[in-house]
Amino acid sequence: QTPPPDAPPPPPPPLGRAEMADAAAESVGIFVKCGLDAKEANAMGAKLVAKLLEVLGEAGVAEKGCDKSVGVLLHSIASKFPANALSHRPHAIAMVMDKKLCTLPQMDACYKFLKAVGAESFDSAALEEACGVGVVVTREEVAAAVAGQIEAHKADILERRYRFVFGRLQVAVQKAHPWALGRVIKEELDKAALALLGPKTAADEAPLPKQKKEKKPKKPKAAAGGAGAEGGVEAEQESIDLFSHLPKPEANNGVHTEVRFSTGETERYANDKATLAAHLARTGGAVVTRFPPEPNGYLHIGHAKAMHIDFGYASQSGGRCYLRFDDTNPAAERQEYIDHIQEIVKWLGWEPYKVTYSSDYFKQLHALAVELIKAGKAYVCHQKGEEIAASRAARKDSPWRDRPIAESLALFEDMRRGMVPEGQATLRMRQDPRNDNFNMFDLIAYRIKFRPHPHAGSEWCIYPSYDFTHCLVDALEDITHSMCTLEFETRRASYYWLCHHCGTYLPHVWEYSRLNITNTVMSKRKLNQLVMERHVDGWDDPRLLTLSGLRRRGASAAAINAFCHAIGVTRNANVIPLTRLEHYMREDLNLMAPRVMAVLDPLKVTITNWPADKVEARTAQRTPPAIAEKRGVPADTYEVPFTRVLYIERSDFRTEDVKGYYGLAPGKHATLRYAYPIKCTGFETNADGTVKEITAEFEPEGSVRTKGVLHWVAEPKPGVAPLSLECRLYGHLFKSADPQALGDKWLGDLKADSKVVVRGAVGSPVLAEAAPGDKFQFERMGYFCVDPDSAPGRPVLNRTVTLREASAIKKL
């Protein structure tokens, strides 16, 4: 087919600064002529300025101006008119210019009526009745209503005089006479107050004495997250409704987006009454959301936030949430990822309403693509990827954009039957190649891939794109709220364009800021590079913020959910300190992790006055009473052996004592936790001067008061070495807070000591029975989790977090 003539040149470049300043000044001049305040006019945003100029133009007052009373109402139309009823805006403007609508309460009634109507036709008489057109409220009627309110509250007014809140009475009068002028109500209220109280006195004008506010008792907080999430951390903001701004399903008839085309036309997409009613009948009016991961990688902490929003909103609203695998690319999906995602969703405590796949809808999607071609809204294109990119840059049409519908239908069928080579054709949506939004640039709907699909098998050799699939499957599943991160905001126009032209229900789309955390990366490409180039030890490396990595490190589902709840849901881009996530992990482990003693850097201590063959069982706290009370469980203990030879942290001994140091030193006492005070009587050194061993004597319990209390591990039996541990100490993976900002040099920011393996640590005998995933607080050292690399009698533990932020151990 012969390509059509070259497309017209792109639109002229945007205005320069000087031209923009002149245009702004001209706009302000127009607004002032219509009675608006110059200062407020200068402060208007660009969108409101454009809308107000449109409204003034439609009213025919942009050149000649108008009274302030009219200008205020036209400004109200520009800022508050319901977007789903914009086709009726000229009617509302005419009512203002004909003096049928004269007050802001009437305008609000007009908006309410038209929002319910949408773009459909309506009865003008019904609108006028709803807006109180022709209803005259006399000043006498207002005065009578004011007098009634004054009489009803007379005692309180006389007691409080002008400190009484007369605004309450104005609201009551306005409710009784909704079409009365607010100015008239205020004047009559002022007149009645003056008649009753007389002029204000000095006492009326004096400031009130400050009163102490009574502290309200704190309400108990409920655990955040999914119903099945284990853990005990509490959410700081549990009482805050993160989703109060979202519309109810029955209110989903507003305009979702407004698309301005390069032709000057504007399309506004909204559900009509019939479509919305049918949708509500199918869903029962319930909130329906979806969590739609691509099964081409492992989930990270950003996905936990998405789950908290998608599953959380559905759960809070008594609705349902799909787990939908967005599996449109057969080259990238693997069963390994599908299994991982389902397992992580369950671990976080979320229960999907259904597990679905985008590929479940391939037949419906193909049928919709065929109908789109028949409607002249899609065409088969033979441009290669680089040619499409060049056309996009030049804002030129594809040479095949205007090919006959019948030809595109035949070619698309050939594509489906495998008769067109891969890479030789695509189906593209016929949108707007010159649009300012590149996501309206005739996006690809289908491409050819000769490979079987992991879920759909070998039935298809054409596969729909993300841009074609995502919105239509949302519509097919009757999703009420389609929520995603802000980088998808520019796709909103394409999302609704496609749903509109396919004649489907339109879900409510809302974008929120993605989760950015310091000292890490979360881009799928960068995570894959870290794993594939072996900078880390796999997708579940505890240094990564993948959810499998966090779980292996020792984070609980409850801690992750509480963190996601606490950071909230906003559209403001921000970066969350990694320490904030660690805070929630620490809070949870403080409540849930049993206490145990372990020594990471052991220094041998021989108690010279303890019998060589004596083993004494000492009682240690597994769950301290204060923690047990918080959890509502009994306090718990365990036994530790005390023998002649034991080990303390090397940092808890110094060869010379100094003021403010509470550990052991020659001739100094310290108390062994759960055991006895000991006094250092000597020490031996190695050839390099390091301390090899110390000797000490124990004292009877309570005989010596010491400031230092040390943790320790003794030989379980005389001559038997304590349980040996391998401890992996994890820190931040990157040196800088924002490795993304380093561009291609981001790998050079990796910390060499982000993982420190400590071999030769020793622990209490109870650790020998620990299973992978068990969590402990090593007293004075931090929180640790048993790693899957453990072997019988050889535990491997990962440090989850330190006891306190930026503190590995208290330096005695």
Task: Report on this structure.
Helix 14 (301-316) links the parallel strand 3 and strand 4. The strands form 7 sheets. This protein has a 7-stranded mixed sheet, covered by helices on one side. It has a 7-stranded mixed sheet with strand order 21-18-19-20-14-17-22, with no helix packed on it. A 4-stranded antiparallel sheet has the order 6-7-8-9. 34% of the residues lie in helices and 17% in strands. The chain is an alpha/beta fold and 812 residues long.
The assigned structural class equals alpha/beta
> Over all CA atoms, what is the radius of gyration?
36 Å
Biggest β-sheet: count, sense, barrel? 7 strands, mixed
Ends distance: 84 Å
Give the overall shape, derived from the CA principal axes: flat
The total count of strands amounts to 27
Total helical segments:
25
Which sequence of strands runs across the widest sheet?
Answer: 12-25-26-27-23-24-13
Q: Percent of residues in beta strands?
A: 15-25%
Q: Which regions have little confidence, pLDDT < 50, spanning 5+ residues?
A: 1-15, 219-224, 807-812
What do the pLDDT scores average to?
A: 90
Helix content: 25-40%
